[in-house]
Amino acid sequence: MLSSFFNKSKPINFIIVALYMFVMYIIAHYQNGIDLDYFKILIFFVGCVAYILTMLILNHVTQKNDLTYKSTNTILLFAFLTGILPASLINPNVLLSNLFIILGMRSILSLRNGKYVKSNILNASLYIGLASLTYFWSITFIVIVFLGVLYFEPKNYRNWIIPFIGLLTVYLLSNCFTLLFYDSFFAITDYVAPISFSFEGYFSNRGFFSIGVLIICILFFLTVYLIKYSRKPTKSKPILKLIITQLLISSIVVMIALNKNTSEMIFIAAPLAIIGTTYLEIDHGKFVREINLWVFILLPFMTLLF
Q1: 196 or 235, which is more confident?
Q2: Please, are residues 284 and 226 in contact by the beta-carbon 8 Å criterion?
Q3: Looking at residue 287, what is its pLDDT?
Q4: Cα–chain-centroid distance for residue 139?
Q5: Can you give the three-state secondary structure of the chain, one letter per residue?
Q6: Are 58 and 75 spatial neighbours (Cβ–Cβ below 8 Å)?
Q7: How many CB atoms lie within 10 A of CB 277?
Q8: Considering the entire predicted model, what is its pTM?
Q9: What are 109-164's pLDDT values in tens digits?
Q10: Distance CA 135, CA 257 (A)
């Protein structure tokens, strides 16, 4: 039943997944304690919109670039992977940053069409710059912009300069905002966040469970993906390399983040959801698929409720 439902791509599928994500979002905030302050309520709704919108844009990216079959398996996996990271659901900064990263990836993957190349490079750079304002180390995803230029439009030297212009634009405009509203200016040294290789923030029962499930998913899904990768047509391989690179950079962000509490692992969710869909698209038999989907749906509640 579940397998046939999520193999389709209809409006009702997106509504069901969005409701599922909203329930997990509510539970995560309830467990953390809900403050009825007006500003906190506004932030609550902003985070919720960013969370659901990320799922919709991720689906658009995967379908437009033929990364998966026409189904809702990818967004279900995204909901599952974010659901096992409740600390990310109560952190509006990483939710917004992740949204901007997915928007940036949308522009980067559009480079393969050969249309509006410079505007797509600039858009991707601006999105990543905005992402870095809410969570600084998401700036490392700028590497994917340069890889996109390398794979699709490397001969025009202007394309290599545009990412720097995009980041500089975000920096200057953000300073204009702070000067206008707060009468202050922040230097690049104030903008850059420190690096930490301390993992003490993960030493909790909930943290161990989330990390354990995520590591198992990475190892298993990535193995299946790499096996399938060799069978993909040559023209689609640059796109697949960019998805793998996104996963690697997300892992680097996790390792260097200053305050580690598993919320920074949300950046892994989108690329891993795309990679994991390859596993769900294998013909295991209906019974095995049903078991897999029930596990993905129910497992986050073990993290959220216990």
Answers
A1: 196
A2: no
A3: 80
A4: 13
A5: CHHHHHCCCCHHHHHHHHHHHHHHHHHHHHHHCCCCCHHHHHHHHHHHHHHHHHHHHHHHHHHHCCCCCCCCHHHHHHHHHHHCCHHHHCCHHHHHHHHHHHHHHHHHHHHHHCCCHHHHHHHHHHHHHHHHHHCHHHHHHHHHHHHHHHHHCCCCCHHHHHHHHHHHHHHHHHHHHHHHHHCCCCCHHHHCCCCCCCCHHHCCHHHHHHHHHHHHHHHHHHHHHHHHHCCCCHHHHHHHHHHHHHHHHHHHHHHHCCCCCCHHHHHHHHHHHHHHHHHHCCCCCHHHHHHHHHHHHHHHHHHHHC
A6: yes
A7: 23
A8: 0.94
A9: 999 888 899 999 999 999 999 999 999 999 999 999 999 999 998 888 899 999 99
A10: 10
Handedness of CA 106, 107, 108, 113 (dihedral sign): positive
Mean pLDDT to the nearest integer, 28-54 = 89
Residue 180: burial class (beta carbons within 10 Å; 0-12, 13-18, 19+): exposed
Whole-angstrom distance, CA of residue 197 vs CA of residue 202 = 12
Quickly tell me which residue has 């980067």 as its tokens: 108
Characterize 95-128 residue by residue with b for buried, 16 or more Cβ atoms within 10 angstroms of its Cβ, and e for exposed.
Answer: bbbbbbbbbbbbbbbbbbeeeebeebbbbbbbbb
Structure tokens at 286: 């209906």
Tokens 């698209």 map to which residue? 281
Residues contacting 81, CB < 8 A, separation 6+: 214, 217, 268, 269, 272, 273, 276
